[in-house]
Amino acid sequence: MAGYVLRRLIGVIPVLAGLSLLSFLLLHLVPVDPAEAALNLSNPGASEEAVQALREEMGLHEPILAQYGTWLYKAVQLDFGTSLVSHQPVGQELGQYLPATLQLALSALLLLLVMSLPLGILSAVYKGSWLDRVIQFIVVSAASVPSFWIGFLLIYLVSMQLNLLPLMGRGDWTHLVLPSSTLALAYASPLIRLLRTGILEHQHQPYIQAARLRGISNPKRMGKYVLKSALPPVITALGITIGHLLAGTVIVESVFAWPGVGRYLVESVANRDYPVIQSYVLLMGTMFILLNLAADLMCAALDPRSRLKEGVLP
């Protein structure tokens, strides 16, 4: 297991390097001079001399490899530069908005697990019944609807018509219900289908039939053998889903006026605040990669066969 972990950690390094290069190049792929865009925010029609002076201050006059090295060195130290709009350190502003996004994503993850695991198990256990058909209808419907439409629908029904929960903003736990439900409903369908398929695939395996012949009860067989075999693909998908939950808050935070990183990004894109956009891509990409790595390591711990497939003995 230690060899497998080391191998996966080494494999992540070039991926993170590629992500950092992509994040850095965002500043150089835009059709507008970043220095000119920064000056136009506060001083439209700035002179060429002022633009050139700012380019030198931002280090844009240096060779691109030198710029990348300097930017990466600072980024590793969590120094992401200065916002072109607020003139505050980007890392400091991200630190102000990130807790709200993490709070929303974690609450959505909790709701996602509460919904997905029981529905997936029930759908598999009662395959072909009316309950299974109802669950499959819900799964298909939720997968067919965009997350922002789910959010608007919940706002209209729950907040405007029934007046049960706050419309938008961040406050106590009641403000979390609608945005986290929107995120959870948008990503529940794949997990439910994966769990259902995994249970149906493994419950007729010979070792499960042998456990039944030995007199092991159905709930114990389901919990100890079937679920353990069916969970690795679900955990892998869950690692990807958590990354999507963090990135998917861009739309949901805008719909519910949630003061998180996603809404901060939308405002930065509108203002062409390139250092913020760079930092967001790097931060979310890194979290996404690390979450997938953690999911793979959990799968390897649950199912040693996944380690054998890569030539690493347990």
From TrEMBL:
Question: A GO molecular-function term, please?
Answer: dipeptide transmembrane transporter activity
Cross-referenced SUPFAM superfamilies: MetI-like
Q: Which Pfam families match?
A: BPD_transp_1, BPD_transp_1_N
Topology within the bilayer:
Multi-pass membrane protein
**UniProt subcellular location:** Cell membrane
Report one GO cellular component.
Answer: plasma membrane
Q: Which UniProt keywords apply?
A: Cell membrane, Ion transport, Membrane, Nickel, Nickel transport, Transmembrane, Transmembrane helix, Transport
Where does the ABC transmembrane type-1 domain lie? 98-299
Keyword ATP-binding listed: no
User: Which regions span the lipid bilayer?
Assistant: 9-30, 104-125, 137-156, 176-195, 230-257, 277-299
- InterPro entries reported for this sequence: BPD_transp_1_N, MetI-like, MetI-like_sf, Opp2B
Q: Which CDD domains match?
A: TM_PBP2
NCBIfam families recorded for this chain?
Opp2B
Assembly and oligomerization: The complex is composed of two ATP-binding proteins (NikD and NikE), two transmembrane proteins (NikB and NikC) and a solute-binding protein (NikA).
Q: Which family does it belong to?
A: Belongs to the binding-protein-dependent transport system permease family. OppBC subfamily.
**Name listed for the protein in its UniProt record:** Nickel import system permease protein NikB
